[in-house]
Design goal:
Blueprint (H helix, E strand, L loop, with lengths): L12 E3 L10 H28 L6 H29 L4 E3 H34 L4 H4 L2 H19 L1 H7 L16 H4 L8 H34 L4 H9 L2 H23 L5 H26 L1 H11 L5
Antiparallel strand pairs: 1-2
């Protein structure tokens, strides 16, 4: 019975799980996830290279896109080691401190992405509603300050999570649901009172994701109001088209994120594979689709890709 109330400091490792219910398809699943990683990493690196090399893309909108690509790379590299270890090398054990570190970075990059999407919506608002003031409002130094503020906010919100977990005694089997460490998964394991952890987690979700999503929605209400005031239908469509990439990025981030949150809080009786699938969508889909969406919808990026991959072969 002495181990029943073991303090967190004596807990040396966690066991990560993949998809045991898909045992016969483990190799196919691993290959699919590796493909998603490859698309995400290569796509976001390409976006960064193109923006760096193309002088016409040295504008606030593309600075924010660069920050989004760096953040998406961070998401991919945060989960890659344990996903590879659990699914490809059948090594599901992860040290406790390493698990807390991975959890910190996964949630840090998630909060940062929300802040970047909010900054990008502000960029679109200024460009459409106050185009004459765009260059004076979104100066390079102001864009840099916005980026630093987003990073500091995310760090301050996520920083307490590992310490709040480390103070708790763990007495249940240290088996996690996913192939990576997430806060909602970790707080199921302690035998102590996790009320503070749950309340703080809910507080930062509401204060970050909730506030950011409301402000993004408000910015698009104002944007639509300005677009509808344009007399020419052709000009309306042209102006709205400049927002399509960002709208897609917002949807592919917030829809899976809200779904994961709902499944964790209200879908306790849902099959375990549903929790795993929703978390995979949340962590894998946005980093993979963001560079694809912006490559398709941004003319300057399309042109640069054409020069890089097609023109030399002609």
């Amino acid at each position: 019975m002495g181990s029943f109330g073991t303090n967190i400091s004596s807990t040396t490792s966690f066991s990560l799980t993949g998809f045991p219910e898909m045992e016969g398809l483990q190799h196919s699943l691993a290959a699919l996830l590796l493909l998603l990683y490859a698309i995400s990493i290569l796509g976001n690196i390409l976006i960064l290279v193109i923006i760096k090399e193309e002088q016409s893309l040295h504008q606030p909108m593309y600075y924010f896109l660069s920050l989004l690509s760096v953040n998406d790379l961070g998401v991919s590299f945060s989960t890659l080691p344990t996903v590879l270890a659990a699914l490809c090398f059948h090594a599901p054990e992860i040290a406790f401190d390493a698990c807390l570190t991975q959890m910190f970075f996964i949630h840090f990059f998630s909060w940062t992405e929300s802040g970047i999407l909010l900054a990008m919506s502000f960029d679109r608002y200024v460009a459409i509603c106050n185009p004459l003031r765009y260059s004076s409002v979104l100066t390079d130094i102001r864009v840099a300050h916005m980026g630093i503020s987003i990073i500091i906010r995310s760090f301050c919100m996520v920083f307490p999570l590992p310490f709040l977990l480390k103070r708790l005694p763990f007495c249940k089997a240290n088996v996690l649901t996913h192939s990576y460490c997430l806060h909602p998964d970790l707080i199921r394991l302690p035998c102590g009172d996790t009320t503070i952890n749950s309340m703080y987690g809910l507080f930062i979700v509401i204060s970050a994701f909730g506030v950011d999503s409301v402000l993004i929605l408000l910015s698009y209400v104002l944007i639509l109001h300005s677009i509808l005031a344009i007399a020419s239908q052709e000009e309306r469509l042209k102006t709205l088209n400049t927002c399509v990439s960002h709208i897609c990025a917002v949807l592919i981030f917030y829809v899976p994120m809200v779904s994961v949150s709902m499944v964790h809080r209200f879908g306790k009786h849902a099959p375990e594979y549903m929790h795993k699938f929703m978390s995979l969508v949340y962590l894998f889909v946005p980093p993979m689709l963001n560079p694809i969406i912006y490559s398709i919808k941004t003319k300057e990026i399309r042109k640069r890709l054409y020069k890089m991959f097609l023109k030399p072969n002609l």
